[in-house]
């Protein structure tokens, strides 16, 4: 019986090959075509030195047994090294993941200017007095924060504000407002971060971040 060869696509990428496996066809037909391409139609491009392989299953949720079947077929070619076997996230999960992604922006926020961001923000530049930077997530400023910063604007009290040079006119996290910097008891605030503890704003050195974010939950 001939194999209809359109359920498995093999694409070259920078670090190896991507195997795109159709998520709608019958499983055994998929394995049969994968075997056929490894042994027959694509034999020439799949020989030689070690090639890294990433397997994409589309929206198919494969069991561990099914993933092992894929590994067994691909391992027959001794130079193919499987790096990953992954399914796409459902749309809801993908949207949730993108919602907490980090945005990187650069420039300078001058007096009277406001920059707002959805999600975590890494800002490469200064926020001058009279300038405002806000975000629904965390704010990391690689520069001087001398204006106003408001993280977790939608009510997330777990958000933080960090800056290379922390001398703001005001800090806010969710609905919590900081004391004026003159009351921090810190003469020069370099590499500091602000966070909410028991309903109050606290300031600490950035290398102490692990104390409020255990390793497993660092964003």
From TrEMBL:
InterPro entries: CAP/MinC_C, MinC, MinC_C_sf, MinC_N_1, Septum_form_inhib_MinC_C. Residues 8-85 form the Septum site-determining protein MinC N-terminal domain. It comes from the Bacteria. Keywords: Cell cycle, Cell division, Septation. Belongs to the MinC family. HAMAP family: MinC (MF_00267). Interacts with MinD and FtsZ. PANTHER family: SEPTUM SITE-DETERMINING PROTEIN MINC. This is Probable septum site-determining protein MinC. The gene is minC.
């Amino acid at each position: 019986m001939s194999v209809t060869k359109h359920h498995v696509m093999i694409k070259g990428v920078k670090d190896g090959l991507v195997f795109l496996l159709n998520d709608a066809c019958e499983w055994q037909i998929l394995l049969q075509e994968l075997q056929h391409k490894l042994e027959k139609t694509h034999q020439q491009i799949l020989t030689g030195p070690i090639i890294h392989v990433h397997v994409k299953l589309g929206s198919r949720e494969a069991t561990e047994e099914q993933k092992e079947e894929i590994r067994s077929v691909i391992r027959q070619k001794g130079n193919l090294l499987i790096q990953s076997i992954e399914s796409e996230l459902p749309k809801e999960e993908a949207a949730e993941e993108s919602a907490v992604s980090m945005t990187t922006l650069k420039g300078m926020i001058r007096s009277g200017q406001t920059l707002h961001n959805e999600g975590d923000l890494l800002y490469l530049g200064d926020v001058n007095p009279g300038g405002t930077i806000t975000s629904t997530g965390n704010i990391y400023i690689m520069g001087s924060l001398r204006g106003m910063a408001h993280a977790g604007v939608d009510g997330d009290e777990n958000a933080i504000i960090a800056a290379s040079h922390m001398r703001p006119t005001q800090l806010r996290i969710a609905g919590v407002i900081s004391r004026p910097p003159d009351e921090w008891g810190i003469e020069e605030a370099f590499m500091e971060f602000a966070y909410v503890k028991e309903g109050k704003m606290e300031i600490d050195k950035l290398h102490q971040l692990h104390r409020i974010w255990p390793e497993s939950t660092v964003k």
